[in-house]
Amino acid sequence: MHTETVQPGLFTRLAQIGRQRATQDGPPETLYDRHGVLVVRVGDVVVKAHQADREHGAPFLERIRLAGALPDLVIGALGPPLTVDGRTVTLATFGEPVDPAQELPWEEGARLLAALHSAPVPADAPSWGRPARVARLVSRLEDGPAEDAVRRAFTTLPAWIRGEEEEPAGRSRRLIHGDWHLGQMVRAPGGRWRLIDIEDLGRGDPAWDLARPAALYSAGVLPPRDWERFLGAYREAGGPAVPAQDDPWTALDVPARSLAIQIAATCVISAGRKDRPLDGAEQAMVDACVRISAAGDAA
């Protein structure tokens, strides 16, 4: 059990809130404590303090309502958000996270996404918005060869992703998770897989939900077998993000390149803060940026 945290006072407050709502006993434990987010489990309840610098006003309330309308796909919040020590806090039912020691559930994740992408889009569904995270991360890069490689790759992205133009009209609009990876899946009570983390849930281009595994695959970090399992299951489930038979990269190229650059920037920033060299997977992401630059703008 992990209880240490860089936010001990907040941990205590979240544990108290969890005890009030939990229906099963259990000591409080830290599930996640990174990037300004703290997640504490108490019995069958999870209490999450969201990032202080993110918008949690009306659009976030709309995402909570949207998640509540998708109980077969998403574990939503147990009621409206709270404010605790100036932080937005939500509660949700605990689900067992993906076990990295077991066979990874790529097919199950693909089917969840295909079902989400195929669901009816409510008229009042909030917009996911442009993928602004990559631009924010690149703007935080310092000087150095790896940083320069990431910046050069960033210039090959379309202007609307770089924040220089409005997003083009006419792009596919489906319900999307907005920040999908295997860490965004849990086994809910009863054993069914569900999506978690609804801060980006809304209307958007479903190709962006496939972008992270596509980026890792293109960089050589995700094994081809896992990528084929994921993409094959998504297509078999009727997922609309990629063509059923034709080249999937016609839809995935820009999202995958964007996520490769975003991941590489995250790796470089993290290594710099800890004054350590890039590890093998991190260097592979930077090498992918070099290849992106060499290929030029394919958008």
From TrEMBL:
<feature type="domain" description="Aminoglycoside phosphotransferase">
    <location>
        <begin position="101"/>
        <end position="244"/>
    </location>
</feature>
<dbReference type="InterPro" id="IPR011009">
    <property type="entry name" value="Kinase-like_dom_sf"/>
</dbReference>
<dbReference type="InterPro" id="IPR002575">
    <property type="entry name" value="Aminoglycoside_PTrfase"/>
</dbReference>
<protein>
    <recommendedName>
        <fullName>Aminoglycoside phosphotransferase domain-containing protein</fullName>
    </recommendedName>
</protein>
<dbReference type="Pfam" id="PF01636">
    <property type="entry name" value="APH"/>
</dbReference>
